[in-house]
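In this section we turn from sequence analysis to structure. A common task in structural bioinformatics is to predict how a protein folds when a small molecule is present, because the ligand can shape the pocket around it. The inputs are simple: the amino acid sequence and a SMILES string for the ligand, here adenosine-5'-diphosphate. Study the lines below before reading on.
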Amino acid sequence: MTTLPLLKTRNLTKFYGNRIGCKDISFDLWPGEVLAIVGESGSGKTTLLNCLATRLTPTTGSVEYQMRDGQYRDLYRLTEAEQRLLMRTDWGFVHQNPADGLRMAVSAGANVGERLMAVGERHYGRIRNTAADWLQRVEIAVDRIDDLPRAFSGGMRQRLQIARNLVTGPRLVFMDEPTGGLDVSVQARLLDLLRGLVADLGLAAIVVTHDLAVARLLSHRMMVMKDGRVIEQGLTDRVLDDPRQPYTQLLVSSILQV
Ligand SMILES: Nc1ncnc2c1ncn2[C@@H]1O[C@H](COP(=O)(O)OP(=O)(O)O)[C@@H](O)[C@H]1O
Ligand SMILES: [Mg+2]
């Protein structure tokens, strides 16, 4: 059996008025592959990610996604209801700020359980057990299940957001600076945890980061963006150990502050 790409992006371009958000982006993402998008602030990383996740509509270009039935569909030709269903079932989206991806007014357990209910689970006991199991997987003590996320530290909130996203068994997870708002000591542990989960679950992921250490640890392949365009892409180790573009060489040698 031949493996086909999960996602095929062609000439994706987003303008904000006259300003370029991202321009002419083409790439394939394979099942189980982790792709990092790196570049300095304003290079178009978030614009690209939001277009891919259908949170923004591109100006031109297409993204074909292989649905669970094996058929490719152009994401921007799906109905809003179909897009929402993908978002709830097949995809996760981890925001930099956990408050953007959590419901802060309901308990940790409910934050995880709610996503299960959204895919049709109705049995209260099973929902609670699965939520407890996922809290453990992200290293949150199960006796915190009834606490509100606002009682949690930044690192715990981010781990809760990850549990909420992974509980439904997505095939693809989008992440925008998943460790960006955290203390350095907390970042390292979260990265380890994320790397383990992504590998165990065989997840495909697209991770936006300005931090090359995050790209090194999490990704198989990376794309370097500058002024809305991809200027270099390749296997992560190759790009970081042997960057070809002068701009990437600057990034890697940390001369550029990003
Ligand atoms: N909502 C918006 N309206 C107008 N311009 C925007 C908007 N969002 C981003 N931009 C511009 O698009 C470019 C890319 O921004 P962004 O995708 O946020 O980059 P990054 O995530 O790499 O920091 C920048 O020039 C930014 O100013
Ligand atoms: Mg951004």
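The longest strand covers residues 19-29. As an exercise, try to locate the residues that line the adenosine-5'-diphosphate site and compare them with your own expectations.
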